[in-house]
Design a protein that fits this description.
Elements (H helix, E strand, L loop, with lengths): L1 E13 L18 E10 L2 E7 H7 L2 E7 L4 E4 L1 E3 L11 H8 L4 H6 L4 H10 L2 H17 L2 E7 L6 H17 L3 E9 L10 H18 L1 E7 L5 E8 L3 E6 L6 H13 L3 E6 L8 H7 L4 E4 L5 H8 L4 E4 L2 H5 L8 H6 L3 E4 L13 H11 L4 H7 L2 H5 L18 E4 L6 H4 L6 E6 L2 E5 L2 E2 L4
Parallel strand pairs: 1-4, 1-5, 6-7, 7-8, 8-11, 11-12, 12-13, 13-14, 14-15
Antiparallel strand pairs: 1-2, 2-3, 5-16, 9-10, 16-17, 17-18, 18-19
The protein binds N-(iminomethyl)-L-glutamic acid and fe (iii) ion.
N-(iminomethyl)-L-glutamic acid binds next to helix 4.
Length: 444
Amino acid sequence: MHVDLLVEHATELVTCASQGGPKRGPAMDDVGIIHDGAVAVHRGRIVAVGTTAQVRERITAAHRVIDARGHSVIPGLVDPHTHVVWAGERAAEFEMRLKGATYLEIFQAGGGILRTVRDTRAASLDDLVLQTRERLDRMLLAGTTTAEAKSGYGLDEETELKMLDAIRALDESHPIDLVPTFLGAHAIPPEYRDRPDDYVDFLVEEMIPKVAALQYRVEETDEEGNLVYGGYERAAWFCDVFCERGAFNLEQTIRILQAAKAAGMDLKVHVDEFEPSLGAVPVAVEMGAISVDHLVSTPEEHLRVLAASDTAAIGLPGTPFGLAECEYTKGRHIIDLGGILAIATDINPGTSWCESMPMMMALATRYMGLTPAEALNAATINAAYAIKMHPFVGSIEEGKQGDLVILDVPDYRHLSYRYGGNLVHTVVKKGRVVVEDHTLVGST
Ligand code: NIG
Ligand code: FE
C-alpha cells in the first residue's frame, strides 16, 4: 500500500490506545508504548500502527517519510475547555489581584468577565478572529490539534452569535479543529444586573432554542479540491453554565441545563471553581452531562457520584495557578475512585492565559497528583471523550484522524517533567505537517 505519510523508527510511539472509550483507574497509568514504532496516515486517517517492521510489511511506499529516531511520538493533544475567543486583555486586573483584590471581588465590581464582554462586544468579527488566531497558533505550536471553544463574552444575542461565527470561521481556516460550546450563561450581563432571573428567562426562552437550531454548512475537500465531506453541523454542540456565587445559582443552572437538554444540546457545567455549589455535580451527572469542569471545592460525596458515572471530570490546573491559589482539583482521588479525568487549559484573559497543554501536564503532575502517563491520557484520549471526539481523535489507532506530535526528546515524560519551554518539534494534523522544527508551516 502507498500512503501519504509514514512516521517510522520512533524511539517510542505513545499510542494512548483505549479500544473505544475513555480510560479509568489503573488503565490511566498506561500510555500504550510501542518501541521503534511507526504510524501511517492516508487521506487524513491512520491506516497502520505498530513496530516499524510490522508497518513496513504493509506499507511499501509513502509520499513523505519522517524518520523519528530519537523522538517520542504522541497523539495530537486535545484541549477540552477553552475560552479562547475574546477581544482585549486584563493585565491591570492581574496587577490588582497581586495587590490583594480577589477574582470574585473584581468580578462583582463589574470587572473580570464583564470587562472582556465590553471589549468583545466592541470588536468586529474580523478583529475577533484575528486576535483569536494568534492564540490558536500558539496552541498548535504547543501540540494542540483539537480544542473546545466557548462563547460567553457576548451575553447578548448579537455578540454570542458573533462569537459562534468566529469559532466556525477559525475551525474552517485554522488547522486546529474546534468544537463549539454555547456559554451564554457565563455571567449576568450589565443590562440584567438587577433582574438576573429575566436574563435566565431570555436564555431559556429565546437564546437556547435559537442556538440549538442554528446549523452551518460544512464542506471538506481533498488535496485535489474534490468534495470529500459535505453536511450540516450545529453552531454549538454543548451548552455550558458558570454555576458559582455571583454568576448563576443552582436553581438557575438547572433551568438552563433543562432547556438546553430539551433543545437537544449536550451539557457541560463550570462547577465548584471557588466555592462548593451545593449540588450542581449530582444534578449534572443525573442529567447526563458530558463533563463537569473545575471541581476545586467539590465535596467528597459529589466526587463519588461523579466517579461512578460516565460524566468526565475536567481539571483546569492553570486556573488556581493563574490566580496564585493553593487548592487544585483532586485529580489523584478522582482517578482512584474510578472517574474519567481529563485536563484542559481553560485559556481565558482572567484566570488562565496559557495556550500550552504540556504546561497543564506539568501542573497536573505536581498539584493534582497525576503520574506523567495519567497526565498524557488526561490530555489526549480522556480529553477527547470530554468533548465527544474520542471516536476520531485522542489516540494513535487505526481509523482515527492522523493527528500526531513529534517531541524533541525520546521520552514523553519530559512533557510533564520540564516546563516553560516547548518540546513540540513537529505537529501533524489529519496527515498534514502543520508545524515543523517549532515553526508553523505556511500561514495558518
Ligand atoms: O473558567 N469561571 C468562569 N470562566 C472562566 C474565567 C473567565 C474570565 O475571567 O474571563 C474560568 O475560569
Ligand atoms: Fe472556564
